Amino acid sequence: MQRLSRVQTIALGFILIIAVGTVLLMLPIASKNGESAGFLNALFTATSSTCVTGLVVVDTYTNWTLFGQSVILLLIQIGGLGFIAIGVFFSIFMKRRIGLKERNLIQESVNTLQIGGTVRLVRKIVCYAAVFEGLGALLLMIRFIPQFGVAEGAWYSVFHSISAFCNAGFDLMGKFQPYSSLVLYEDDMLVNLVVMALIVIGGIGFIVWDDISIHKWNVKKYLLHTKIVLFMTLILIVAGSLCFYFFERENLAALDAKGQILASVFGAVTPRTAGFNTIDTGAYTEGTRMLTVMLMFIGGSPGSTAGGIKTTTMMVILLYIWATLRNKSGLNIFGRRMDEDSIKKASTVFFINLILAAVCTLIMAGLETLPLSDILMEIFSAIGTVGISTGITRDITVASKYMLILLMYCGRIGSMSFALFFTEKRHSAPVKLPIERITIG
């Protein structure tokens, strides 16, 4: 039997975790009605949790018991940090030797630039995640414990902190109203800032954390990767917030100035790729829906808890277009020139995701009698592992639900990785075919 490649190992690992999660969620003890949730509901929820998406077919609070919610939270944590990183961390804790194979898997799992220092990076990933999630939970307790009591408030704080940091978007606010997310906290400064901070920190990526921890505030020494991620993140948040306010200004008119700012910034942060919402997504204007689709498509950054094509991919595409229009050779930014492989990979990731989303949109449009904007939101939410929905997820056909399950899986492991799962070969052909030029444009 041929040995599995790194991509195939990771892809199969996620399938195994989803399978285990499905079985656990099918147990009667996981459902509040004491009956099995059924295969499809359990599979959809397990996939959405493991792929840190947040799309749901049943409300998390009203349907799942504490056991079921705990399973979901565990899947979110494993899916967010990556089962390879968590497994290696426990191996380090047990003082087991980490071989070259494990180091290669870490490099592929967290998208680090080199194999050296991967074990050290795993330690940092787990420790930083524990610190950020713990701090987020403590801050949320300030709001939730007085509201829900000590035990329930602490659980709500931990659940939402991990869900936000892992960019999952699962919530327990169905206690007030099913599928309401954080709408009741639309003008709550503490909840908004804590959740947004966790989303952004989780979404910038493990490589960026490591770089910042080493060089602190010495920006000049940052890796080009870190500079691009921070620059793109800032641009998308600022531009996204302004556009969100412009498109939603009538819906935001009932809020005061503070509430409008919080809602606008939250509306720009959460599509990359957390899935929470403080404004009813079903009431979004058409402009806001298209803005949200664009932000979901871009997503977070490589080697993070977020999905999407990633900020670096988008930057490479934009630089390539700009250089082509100016008839310049090479992509230059921040005093550095990007390598050709980055351009090829960025173009491949961009168009694979775009084509996959377009094809699935057409299929779903044929299966459902729904507005196209609702379908676009659902498709891009799934492939970007976001979780934002206009509320159609629970009402669509079985075929559409299975398609969304596949899209969430592809979005988590990467559409390019999913393609390589079937096509990856270890040896390239020794003979190259002759070149012949064609006309473009």
Q: Topology, please?
A:
Layout (H helix, E strand, L loop, with lengths): L5 H21 L12 H12 L9 H4 L2 H16 L1 H11 L6 H11 L7 H31 L1 H16 L23 H16 L1 H10 L8 H25 L8 H13 L16 H13 L12 H15 L6 E2 L2 E2 L2 H28 L4 H12 L14 H16 L1 H9 L18
Antiparallel strand pairs: 1-2
Features:
mainly alpha, 441 residues, two-stranded antiparallel ribbon, 63% helix
Can you characterise this structure?
It is a single chain. The relative contact order is 0.11. A two-stranded antiparallel ribbon has the order 1-2. A hairpin with a 2-residue loop joins β1 and β2 (336-337). α7 (118-148) packs antiparallel against α8. The protein has 441 residues and is mainly alpha-helical. It is built from 18 helices and two strands.
Main sheet: which strands, in order across?
1-2
User: How many extended strands?
Assistant: 2
**Shape by Cα distribution:** globular
Mean pLDDT rating: 86
**Binned strand content:** under 5%
Number of helices: 18
The biggest beta sheet reads:
2 strands, antiparallel
- Termini, distance in Å? 46 Å
Helix content: 55-70%
- Quaternary state reads single chain
